[in-house]
C-alpha cells in the first residue's frame, strides 16, 4: 500500500492453492507494478519421510509444481532449487510448455499432496492455538532441516534461535498437541 517496493520475493507453491487472500494480495501487488519472485516453488527437500507416502512410492512431481506457479500471470519469475544438472534440465523443461501432462494433473489433483509436502509457511498463526506458546514455526523449520533436507548444521542453527521456554521441551506438558495450522 505504501508503494515502497519494486520487487518482492515470496514463498508460493501448490500447497497455497486455497489461500485466496494470498493470491489476491499477489495479484494486487502485480497490478501495482511490483515484480513478484516466487521461491519455495517445489516445496523443497524430500517428502513423505514420515508422511502418508514414502519417498520411493511416488516422488514429488517437480515439473507439475513449477508449472503450477508459472501458470499464475502475476508471478514475474521463480527461484527453483537446483542441486544437480538433472534439476536444471528438469526446471528448464517447463519453459517450453506450461500445459500439464496427465501425470502432472493427477499429482496436483491429489487432495493429500499439500499435507504430505509438510510445508510450513511460517505465518505463526498456529502459535495462538498452543497452550504452552511453543514456537511451532521454528520447530517446523527444524523438522524440515532434519527430515527433508537432512542438514544437521541448519537444524542446529535453527534450534539455537528458539527462545527459551518456546521449544520442544514445553510440548511434554500436553498429552496431545492442540495446535492447529491455519
UniProtKB/TrEMBL annotation:
<dbReference type="InterPro" id="IPR017900">
    <property type="entry name" value="4Fe4S_Fe_S_CS"/>
</dbReference>
<dbReference type="InterPro" id="IPR036812">
    <property type="entry name" value="NAD(P)_OxRdtase_dom_sf"/>
</dbReference>
<protein>
    <recommendedName>
        <fullName>4Fe-4S ferredoxin-type domain-containing protein</fullName>
    </recommendedName>
</protein>
